[in-house]
Amino acid sequence: MLRWMLILLLPCLAWAQPPLPFPEAAYLQRVWQDARGGVYSVIPSKDGVLRITRFSDGASFRYQMDNGQMIRRPADAPLPVFAEQQIEFDGQLLQPLPHTLEEIWFDSAGVRLYGMLVSPISATPVPAVVVAHGSGKDAATDYYFEPAVYLQAEVATLLFDKRGTGRSGGDYSHDFVQLAADLSAALSVLEDRPEIDAKRLGVVGLSQGVYVALQAAADPRIRFLIAGYGMLESPLAEDLQETRQKFEAAYPNLDWSEFEPFAQACGLAFGARQDAQWKAVKQGRRTWRKRVDAEHLAGTMTGDGCLRYGPMLLKAFGRRQLPPGLDWDFDANARAAALSIPTLFQFGEADTEAPSASSIHKIRDYIAAGKPFTIKTYAGADHGMKVWLNEVDGVRNYRVHPDYIADQISWLRTQLGALGAPLERTAQSR
């Protein structure tokens, strides 16, 4: 979920916006349907990549230009053929799935935020969700296919670039309280629109966005919540679990219990700024840096920090590279315990960035205690619900687990019921 890449010297580079492989795609609608009813997300993004997701099987296709040559991922991805109001793709004729798309600007704490509102065509007000996206700096409006998913459940989606990303203003931040306030400002946008049913508003949190959604869930306007591939652990505990998972995968003959004190001290000293722990870090580094390759623990504070660099360098420069505004002790579990609204938790069982076992156990305990939660788990799914396929030319290809998508649609339909019906409160487990 969180990536701690400590780059002590980062050159400033200015990049021109690359061209799209299919210039005509820039003017297309984002949600399409084939004659069999299959739905596709088609997103031309500002990084010059055209992304097509086919929800029936989760297949993900990417197209871009490189030195005048078309690059396809996977390499055998079918080439789309564009015409007026239609796309020929992999033997299917796609036509727009009726919907409206409106650019939205709104203010939160003096910062101007940019988003897109994607809504089904309806004669009566429809339910709606706001999406809280993950820790990265990529623009949500450029990458996220969620509006095409929720459109299938007759739910509108407000997708916005969080502060400091995309077209939104402000400084990039991991301050969950501030990000939750931004999410609440987005809810106010929906609440004021006549085509939206203000009594059926929900939040979707993805990856680090689960922390944001849980923080925001105290807002009484939020009637339901979807939490995808996040954790009910603090960011500090998450980093330690990710370190353990990578350590045990890379070094099956070494004992984690011997390495763990070093990893714990690293997190407390480096992330939580407990300077008394630096002595233990120095001792642990002396013991382990020749036995454990930092590259095998990449993406963790131990791998990117304490194994690579000494305490003096980390204190002087490394802490500046940590996520700004992050509360390392944020108690996600306490916020889940406070929830009383229907919530769908979804976990990949093979998640390498947000190990899911402990969170799955906690949610099942909450369900047993009567919380209105539903849990879905997906064998073989990594972070982002990606199921990895073959690797070609150093690039890993993937599909999005199709049950992840189908379960969201089914759960929303069940919870929202018939248009205008009250929410049902149910607890289910799989």
Q: What is the 3D shape? A: globular
Instruction: Report the major sheet.
Output: 9 strands, mixed
Mean pLDDT: 90
In terms of quaternary structure, the protein is single chain
Helix content: 25-40%
**What's the CATH architecture of the largest domain?**
3-Layer(aba) Sandwich
Tell me the distance between the termini. Answer: 23 Å
**DSSP, total strands:** 19
Number of domains: 3
Structural class: alpha/beta
Strand content: 25-35%
Number of helices: 12
Low-confidence stretches: 1-15, 422-430
Radius of gyration: 22 Å
Sequence of strands across the biggest β-sheet: 9-10-12-11-13-14-15-16-19
CATH top level label of the largest domain = Alpha Beta
CATH superfamily of the largest domain: Alpha/Beta hydrolase fold, catalytic domain
CATH domain fold name of the largest domain: Rossmann fold
Report on the structure:
With 430 residues, this protein is of the alpha/beta class. It folds into three domains: 23-96, no CATH class; 99-234 and 330-429, 3-Layer(aba) Sandwich (Rossmann fold), CATH 3.40.50.1820; 235-321, no CATH class. Helix content is 28%, strand content 27%. It contains twelve helices and 19 strands. Strands 9-10-12-11-13-14-15-16-19 form a nine-stranded mixed sheet, sandwiched between helices. An eight-stranded antiparallel sheet has the order 5-4-3-2-1-8-7-6. Strand 6 and strand 7 (86-89) form a beta hairpin. The longest helix is centred in the middle third of the chain and has 16 residues, at 176-191. The two termini are 23 Å apart. The model is unreliable at 1-15 and 422-430 (pLDDT under 50).
